[in-house]
Amino acid sequence: MLGFIRIFSQLQASGTFANMQMLSGGIWEGLICTAAGLAVAIPCYAAYNYLVSRVNAIVLDMEKAAGEIVNIVTEIPNAKPA
After folding, report:
1. What is the mean pLDDT of residues 19-44?
2. d(CA 40, CA 56)
3. What is the pTM of this model?
4. 7, 23 in Cβ contact below 8 A?
5. What is the SS3 string spanning 4-62?
6. Interatomic CA distance for residues 50 and 44, integer angstroms
7. Mean pLDDT, the chain, integer
8. pLDDT of residue 3
9. Residue 40 CB neighbour total at 10 angstroms
């Protein structure tokens, strides 16, 4: 953030004599920051999706186990199947 403030203050100080090289330094810094952000965000998003799928699998196993327990508890002894 401070880099952008420095660049724009230099552009303002140069007045009408500002050139593209002064602005391209700021664009270069912005692109580096964007690339670094993506390099962090993409693996984090992949890890998040992996963990969400693991949680969903665990919840599904718990629901299956709860259903089996309910069937065992509510089963009538010596009942003939319908």
Report:
1. 84
2. 25
3. 0.59
4. yes
5. HHHHHHHHHHHHHHCCHHHHHHHHHHHHHHHHHHHHHHHHHHHHHHHHHHHHHHHHHHH
6. 10
7. 84
8. 62
9. 10
